[in-house]
């Protein structure tokens, strides 16, 4: 097998879509072996061995914004923690050393944070096989080349079953109102197919599923870290979704109908819950850990504070408000928005992996990585923090004029919220004396109102959610970690100062990494 040995490792986001493996040779160098999901090579030496851009980022990890241009702040030294004291604690780094991973969803936001953390803290990890979904070979090759600067392709899919120690399923379709067939294919059939593969792996130590805390459905009160009681015929739901009965135009409605019929908020969490159900039903002697994060937002610390990709759950509201397009929202003012930084999710994942990846008996363990019990962020507090940030650091309009925003109004009535939106839109139109411009603005305002009403409708099950996610198992993990592990793999949500995180970390990160370069948002 030919390979290209590199010092640096660069992660560059891309919108295009194979298989790939990352394999470290030693603590100071790594080789990266790549292949697509096809049965023949799709990447040649010539296409990737010219590494000027890689050399430029030597001995660093580069995480760039979606436009593909590297950012000065988006560089972190690749310094391994080789001097970590591994006496006591869980032994996270010790577990990672030499292990072979198979990771799905690695080109997503959380997947990139996970791989960066593994490579930085355990540079002598064995291999990381990464599954990339692509429309064709060329798309897989292009995405691979853009996402990770690598060496040569080789087809080793037939070797994975005899090689892999840990499977991490991070792939998901997170659209709340996705087509039912599409969501089931990824969120339910995906885990089923992967578990079927896991049972063929000769030395597998753990199957780790990245889920969501909201798989618990529309429940109230304290929600415990427990598996589901099987009361749903998942096989029948799959058949319903894939029947050729002319329902194509109504697949979105079907997904929402089925979810709400059985007590879930939307198609996303319903199909993720069914994914957990099939894992539990199929696992047999396979050890399983399920990580259930709440709302994943920008990083708290690693690879640096505030890094993120794309709009996360609460970010459309944050952006609309900052641009002056949203002055109120439909939400329980005293309700809790359960937010957790991405790197804390990754750290909890690695701790759970090390804890259960060497357990003497197979079992299924569940962890809520959530803040609603340990450190709740109340909606009216979030609204205050947003106003504080934009009052001191306003966005600029297309003319460079600061956009001044009022305090956000919170409405617990759909009618009151709708009336507020139309009144706000009417005020904007009336403020323009030019009749021609006013009509154009009226059309824009009408479209914005409809978008905001749709957003509020989709978010309503979450903005009025009365459940609180117990995290006793997560607390138990932290209790057995060494002090060094707590420093390098910390996930204590109680340590988050929400004012500092929202105003000084998250919103600046959102503006820098997601909205940078977009007109009217500087």
Automatic annotation (TrEMBL):
Alphabetical list of InterPro entries matching this protein: FAR, FAR_C, FAR_NAD-bd, NAD(P)-bd_dom_sf
Record-given protein name: Fatty acyl-CoA reductase
Enzyme Commission code(s) on record: 1.2.1.84
CDD domains (UniProt xref): FAR-N_SDR_e, FAR_C
Functional description taken from the UniProt entry: Catalyzes the reduction of fatty acyl-CoA to fatty alcohols.
Residue ranges of every copy of the Fatty acyl-CoA reductase C-terminal domain listed in the record: 444-516
Source species, domain of life: Eukaryota
Domain Thioester reductase (TE) intervals: 103-148, 151-349
Keywords: Lipid biosynthesis, Lipid metabolism, NADP, Oxidoreductase
One GO biological process term: long-chain fatty-acyl-CoA metabolic process
Pfam families xrefs: NAD_binding_4, Sterile
SUPFAM superfamilies cross-referenced by the UniProt entry: NAD(P)-binding Rossmann-fold domains
């Amino acid at each position: 097998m030919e390979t290209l040995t590199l010092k640096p490792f660069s992660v560059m986001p891309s919108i295009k879509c194979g298989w790939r493996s990352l394999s470290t040779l030693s603590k100071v160098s790594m080789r990266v072996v790549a292949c697509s999901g096809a049965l023949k090579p799709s990447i040649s030496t010539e296409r990737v061995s010219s590494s000027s851009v890689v050399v430029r980022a030597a001995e660093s990890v580069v995480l760039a914004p979606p436009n593909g241009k590297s950012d000065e702040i988006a560089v972190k030294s690749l310094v391994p923690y080789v001097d970590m004291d591994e006496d006591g604690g869980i032994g996270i780094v010790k577990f990672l050393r030499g292990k072979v991973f198979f990771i799905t969803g690695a080109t997503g936001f959380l997947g990139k944070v996970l791989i960066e953390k593994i490579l930085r803290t355990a540079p002598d990890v064995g291999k990381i096989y990464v599954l990339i979904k692509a429309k064709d070979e060329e798309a897989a090759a292009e995405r691979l080349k853009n996402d990770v600067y690598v060496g040569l392709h080789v087809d080793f899919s037939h070797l994975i079953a005899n090689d892999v120690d840990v499977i991490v399923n991070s792939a998901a379709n997170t659209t709340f109102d996705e087509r039912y067939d599409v969501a089931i294919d990824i969120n339910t059939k995906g885990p089923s197919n992967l578990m079927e593969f896991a049972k063929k792996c000769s030395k597998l130590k753990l199957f780790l599923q990245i889920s969501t805390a909201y798989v618990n459905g529309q429940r109230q009160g304290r929600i415990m870290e427990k598996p589901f009681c099987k009361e749903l015929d998942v096989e029948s739901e799959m058949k319903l979704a894939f029947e050729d009965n002319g329902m194509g135009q109504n697949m979105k409605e079907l997904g929402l109908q089925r979810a709400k019929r059985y007590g879930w908020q939307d198609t996303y969490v319903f199909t993720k819950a069914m994914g957990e159900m099939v894992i539990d039903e199929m696992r047999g002697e396979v050890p399983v850990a399920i990580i259930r994060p709440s709302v994943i937002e920008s990083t708290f610390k690693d690879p640096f504070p505030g890094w993120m990709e794309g709009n996360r759950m609460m970010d459309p509201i944050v952006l609309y408000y900052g641009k002056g397009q949203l002055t109120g929202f439909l939400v329980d003012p005293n309700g809790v928005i359960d937010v957790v930084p991405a790197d804390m999710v990754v750290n909890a994942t690695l701790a759970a992996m090390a804890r259960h990846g060497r357990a003497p008996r197979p079992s299924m363990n569940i962890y809520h990585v959530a803040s609603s019990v340990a450190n709740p962020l109340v909606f009216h507090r979030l609204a205050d923090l947003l106003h504080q940030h934009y009052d001191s650091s306003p966005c600029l309009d297309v003319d460079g004029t600061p956009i001044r925003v009022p305090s956000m109004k919170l409405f617990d009535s759909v009618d009151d919220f709708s009336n507020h939106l139309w009144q706000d839109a009417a005020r904007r139109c009336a403020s323009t004396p030019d009749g021609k411009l006013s009509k154009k603005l009226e059309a824009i305002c009408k479209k914005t109102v409809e978008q905001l009403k749709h957003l509020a409708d989709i978010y309503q099950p979450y903005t009025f959610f009365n459940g609180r996610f117990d995290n006793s198992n997560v607390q138990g993990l932290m209790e057995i970690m060494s002090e060094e592990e707590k420093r390098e793999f910390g996930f204590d949500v109680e340590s988050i100062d929400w004012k500092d995180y929202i105003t000084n970390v998250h919103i600046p990160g959102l503006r820098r990494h997601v909205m940078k370069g977009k007109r009217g948002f500087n």
